[in-house]
Design goal:
Number of helices: 3
Strand content: 5-15%
Strand order of the largest sheet: 1-2
Shape: globular
Number of strands: 2
Largest sheet: 2 strands, antiparallel
Helix content: 25-40%
Radius of gyration: 14 Å
Order of helices and strands: HEHEH
Structural class: mainly alpha
């Protein structure tokens, strides 16, 4: 939800399983069953720019920092 509020399109599952809450079948098929329940997928489009990916990474770091009780330097 925090990534969504930051304007980042993220999902816990594959694009073809939109709306379903289930570990990634793709990662399971790759033998990465330990990662499947905690993985996220970020989506971009034709107009996605490198700075959009940097903003997504910054949003992820900011959310993690908030959970740890710290603020990311980029947010200061």
């Amino acid at each position: 939800m925090g990534l969504d509020l930051a304007g980042v399109r993220a999902s816990a599952g594959a694009a073809c399983s939109s709306g379903k809450v289930r570990p990634s079948r793709v990662l399971e098929a790759m033998g990465l069953t330990d990662l499947a329940p905690c993985a996220i997928r970020l989506s971009g489009g034709w107009s996605t720019r490198p700075e959009d990916w940097r903003a997504a990474a910054d949003a992820w770091i900011e959310l993690k920092s908030r959970r740890a009780g710290r603020q990311h330097p980029a947010a200061a």
